[in-house]
Design a protein that fits this description.
Elements (H helix, E strand, L loop, with lengths): L1 E7 L9 E7 L3 H15 L4 E7 L3 H10 L13 E5 L4 H11 L2 E4 L12 E5 L15 E4 L16 E5 L11 H14 L4 E5 L6 H7 L7 E4 L8 H8 L2 E5 L3 H9 L3 E5 L8 H11 L4 E2 H7 L11 H14 L3
Parallel strand pairs: 2-3, 2-4, 4-5, 5-6, 6-7, 8-9, 8-11, 9-10, 11-12, 12-13
Antiparallel strand pairs: 1-3
Helix pairs in contact: 1-10, 2-3, 4-5
């Protein structure tokens, strides 16, 4: 493992700050989940935060068996060890064995769950038909955690279209997606619309969309969006439509206190991810495009998810309030 950053939060007195060690496998999605939780905890109390990258699952196991995590001499004893990614499991156990602390794992582990102090797991990772109660060290969330937070201000009439692309769960249809985009923008003329793509979006989609001009639509390809651009636009937008393959973006849009619609994408197979999106629609959190054509958003209030804040309160109550 390699120590790559450390910072002290807003309280300059280390004696009144809890030490949190954040472990990731270097994947942006996993780091974003950890960042979402640790940022929410910081809103509750001051922290000293250390970040560790775990380069190898096998190195984590080796260090667990030896009891000597490689950056151990550089670390303060943590009150919390927050980890995401399968590569981090053994490393988190190794750090706890050597330095103490409570492990908060942001996923359903392949190892026994009772090895960890708390597992924060998306609902779609569990069998929806199971009647077996969850252990008290497991809490479920709507989707994965993120750093998006509703700003509480009145939204102006901005609209945002987030376009994904084909994946193992979804196929793709340029023309069908363009039809949906055109109908939304032409129907909601009181909005100023921005569309952005993802790394998975086929280049043919933008070419198809530009065959006929669309008034009141700004197109910003993913390659032209700086870090933080999407989050900034989400928090400022009144209405957000997300292609249903972009699962993490759906939950981020819900965290931003926007009206959220789903753009239909052909499905390759029904899996836990797809079923999770369907449950959001059934519960009224999001509205699929075909339903939106009938009802628009007039029949519902925006549904705000603040899962990172909810989980932070649980973590603080269980592990930090008495620290």
């Amino acid at each position: 493992m390699s120590l790559f950053t450390e910072h002290l939060s807003h309280d300059p007195d280390p004696r009144s700050s809890s030490v949190v060690l954040c472990l990731t496998d270097g994947k942006p999605g996993h780091k974003s989940q950890v960042q979402g939780l640790v940022t929410a905890i910081e809103r509750c109390q001051p922290l000293i935060i250390q970040w560790l990258d775990v380069p190898s699952r096998w190195q984590g196991w080796r260090e667990l068996f030896t009891g000597h995590p490689s950056p151990g001499n550089s670390l303060q004893s943590p009150q919390l060890i927050i980890a995401a990614g399968h590569r981090t499991h053994a490393a988190a156990l190794a750090v706890r064995r050597a330095l103490g602390g409570r492990i908060v794992l942001l996923m359903k582990p392949t190892l026994p769950t009772h090895w960890f102090d708390l597992c924060v797991v998306p609902q779609h990772d569990f069998d929806e038909n199971s009647t077996e109660p969850l252990a008290n060290n497991i809490i479920t969330t709507y989707g994965v955690l993120n750093s998006v937070r509703a700003n509480g201000a009145n939204k102006d009439s901005r609209g945002l279209l987030l376009i994904g692309g084909p994946s193992k769960h979804h196929g793709w249809d340029d023309q069908a997606m363009c039809v949906q985009v055109r109908e939304i923008v032409s129907s909601m003329t009181d909005h100023c619309w921005t569309l952005t793509t993802s790394r998975r979006t086929p280049t043919s989609f933008i070419s198809e969309l530009l065959k006929s001009p669309i008034l009141n639509l700004e197109i910003v390809p993913a390659s032209e969006t700086p870090p933080g651009w999407v989050v900034e636009r989400l928090t400022a937008s009144k209405t957000v439509f997300v292609s249903e393959d972009s699962v993490s973006m759906v939950y981020e849009a819900l965290s931003a206190n926007a009206d959220v619609g789903l753009l239909h994408v052909p499905r390759r197979r029904m899996g836990r991810i797809v079923r999770g999106i369907d449950r959001l629609a059934e519960s009224g959190y999001v509205i699929p495009f075909e339903q939106w054509k009938i009802h628009q958003f007039t029949h519902r209030e925006p549904c705000v998810l603040q899962e990172a804040d909810r989980c932070a309160e649980i973590v603080c109550k269980r592990f930090l309030d008495a620290a």
